[in-house]
Structures are given as C-alpha cells and as structure tokens.
Amino acid sequence: GHPLTIFLNDKGVLVGSMANAGKYPEHQKALADVVAKGGTVLMCPMCMKHYGVREADMLPGIKVGNPELTGGALFRDNGKTLTW
Q1: The pLDDT of residue 84
Q2: Rounded to 10 degrees, what is the CA torsion of 75, 79, 80, 82?
Q3: Torsion sign, CA atoms 61, 59, 79, 45
Q4: How is 16-62 classified by DSSP, letter by letter?
Q5: Is the pLDDT of residue 81 over 90?
Q6: H or E segment at 68?
C-alpha cells in the first residue's frame, strides 16, 4: 500500500543478475514480484562494474541507478529507508 524501492548494492547486484538464477531463485522471484506490483528495483552501477554484472544480465524491470533516480527514491517526501 506504499511506494517501495529496493537498491541492490555491493554483492546484492549478483542477486539481480540472470547469470545467478540457480543460486538465488527465491530472491529473484521476490524481486520480480516487487517489480510486477509496481515497485522499483535499482542496481548500483559501480557495484555492477566491480562484480562484472552487465546491464544485459539484469533481471527484467531492474534499473541501473544514477544520482537522480537513486536520490529521488531515498529522499522522497515522507519516505522511509531501511538498510542493513
């Protein structure tokens, strides 16, 4: 019932890569469900480069983050951020 953005950074980018479907099937299904329900999934471009994840490898619906897109999600009015 509220906007949701998931930001995949560090090794999280591996979860968003189709090349790792066999390793993270439950996680990838959860990400696909978020996208299907209108949520946003962003991937850190520097982390992608570090771990060799190409844009062509990303699960459908995931977007490459950039300062405007990521900042807009993190600092949206009345937004909440959870990190660990």
Answers
A1: 61
A2: -50
A3: negative
A4: TBGGGTTT-HHHHHHHHHHHHTT-EEEE-HHHHHHHT--GGGBPTT-
A5: no
A6: helix 67-74
